Structures are given as structure tokens and as C-alpha cells.
């Protein structure tokens, strides 16, 4: 392995001072639980990913990622870097900005403002019901917010059915909670669709769906939710709000969507797909500040698309991760050639 790039983290120093051979770090999960994982001075983020997957008994460690959340910003951790080097980065950045030592301590990884998060990053081979631990710990809690933000295109019947399932997840079999449905609509119905009908109409239809689903458990309701939305083309997609002016035929404000199929540009007003670029057509991509740029190969020529977003670096990292995943799959499936030719 390459040598560490930064001085020891405080957790390592504390372990040495206490003559301890083991260091544990808290890792937060999407279902609002957390686990303690053992790490060492030479643990890389990739090794930690495998360790967490094993500890959780996931069917596969592939497709997950580690993130660092400092205040309101969440950054993906590089797989090839050392875990403790990453934990020092917030402090190092504060030093470079010339902050006082007192201010530096406020962003120390041991404080509450600092979180390490483990979550699903790449959505491939996600089949609801195949891995219940993954479904309940990652897939359900990560997909529900996307649904409620209105990213998916769905019918009224879809919303009635999914609203009934989400209501069961919230109250189980407690039918006395029916009266609370009008106050819970933002937890049951996509935000942009709530105004389609009155609260009482939503209540009536959600109760009807809930009653038809009678007899299922909360866990079964979560799996049923995932099963229904898994057939949608936008299932497992990451959505980013971007602004563009380079393509006159597209709206200025777009959803820049990344999924296992590639990059899609969607009109947020009507949720209509403008274009979809498979990863093998994206020949170059990069981010700088609040700008993201990619070059797409077409049959006629190459087209450059530029957009503005505060999540430019996150977009670049996610595309890079999907491209790397497909490249690794090619290496695995590619027939071995004669080593002398």
C-alpha cells in the first residue's frame, strides 16, 4: 500500500495513549440506525466497505459507498484512500483557510457535526425481495424520499396504492390513525401531486388501498412498495437540479438524472424525458466549481453539454463510479487472450 498522506487522526492517537489495539468508528445507515466498525491505520475505504457489508450480512458489498457529512454537505469517500486520511480532511481544509485552532476543533471528526454514512450508491442488480437486509436498511429508506419529492411519473392509482403501503409502514394495523391521514399527506403522497384533490379525497382512497392490503406486515409493506416502483424507468436514479443554456431545445432548468442505464435529462415541469445518454457515449466529463461538463459522442459529431449546479463534483463522482463498475465487469467477462500475442 502507499504511505498515509496525513498525520494520525485523533482516534488513532487516543488508541495509542490507551494502549489499545482496536479502534472502532460509528457508521450511520439510511434507516436511521448506526453500527460500530473496527478500523485500523491502514484501512482503506474499499476495505471498510467490504467489512461493513460482511457485518450487516449483505448478499454483496458491490454498489455501496461511504460518505462524509460535515454540516450540510455530503462528500463521497474515494475507495482507494485511507479511511483516517479522509477523516482528517475537514480539519486540514480549515487549517488551509487560516481558521483559528478553536474553530478547527469544532469540525473535528469526533464532534456531532461530523458523520460517516454508508449507503447504496450504484443501483444495479437491485431486485426487491432478493436481499431483505439491503431492502430494509438501504433501498426502502433511500427510495421513499425520491418518491415523495415527486421525481417519478406515476398514476393516481399508483399513488393510492403506495400511499396505503406507506401509511401501513407508519401506523402498522392501528386503524384509529385514519383521522391523521390529512396531516400526513406529505409523508404519503408526492409533494407536487398533493394539490390534485382534497385532503378528504386522498384520505378516502388511501384508506381503501390500506384496507385491501389488510394482513400484511410493516416489513412486507416496505418490500411491496419497492416491488411496485422497481418497474419504473426512474427507479434507483439519482436526481440533480441543474441550469443549462447550451441546448436551446431543452428547458433551462432540468433534472440531471443518473442511473445504471446512463445519464438522462428530464423536464421537471412535466417529467418528460428530453434525452438519454448511455455511459459508453459519454467520452469526457469533468466538474469545476459549480459547473459540470460532458462530451457525448453521436453518429455525426461530438456534443458538449454544460450545466450549472452546486452538486457538480457529486455528479462527476457518480458517473465515474458507474463507468468504473462497467469497466470492471468487462474485465471479468472478457475471455482470456493468449498472453504471448
Automatic annotation (TrEMBL):
<dbReference type="InterPro" id="IPR014352">
    <property type="entry name" value="FERM/acyl-CoA-bd_prot_sf"/>
</dbReference>
<dbReference type="Pfam" id="PF21989">
    <property type="entry name" value="RA_2"/>
</dbReference>
<dbReference type="InterPro" id="IPR002404">
    <property type="entry name" value="IRS_PTB"/>
</dbReference>
<dbReference type="InterPro" id="IPR000299">
    <property type="entry name" value="FERM_domain"/>
</dbReference>
<dbReference type="InterPro" id="IPR035963">
    <property type="entry name" value="FERM_2"/>
</dbReference>
<dbReference type="InterPro" id="IPR019749">
    <property type="entry name" value="Band_41_domain"/>
</dbReference>
<protein>
    <recommendedName>
        <fullName>FERM domain-containing protein</fullName>
    </recommendedName>
</protein>
<dbReference type="InterPro" id="IPR011993">
    <property type="entry name" value="PH-like_dom_sf"/>
</dbReference>
<dbReference type="InterPro" id="IPR051567">
    <property type="entry name" value="Unconventional_Myosin_ATPase"/>
</dbReference>
<dbReference type="InterPro" id="IPR019748">
    <property type="entry name" value="FERM_central"/>
</dbReference>
<dbReference type="Pfam" id="PF02174">
    <property type="entry name" value="IRS"/>
</dbReference>
<dbReference type="InterPro" id="IPR029071">
    <property type="entry name" value="Ubiquitin-like_domsf"/>
</dbReference>
<feature type="domain" description="FERM">
    <location>
        <begin position="23"/>
        <end position="330"/>
    </location>
</feature>
<dbReference type="Pfam" id="PF00373">
    <property type="entry name" value="FERM_M"/>
</dbReference>
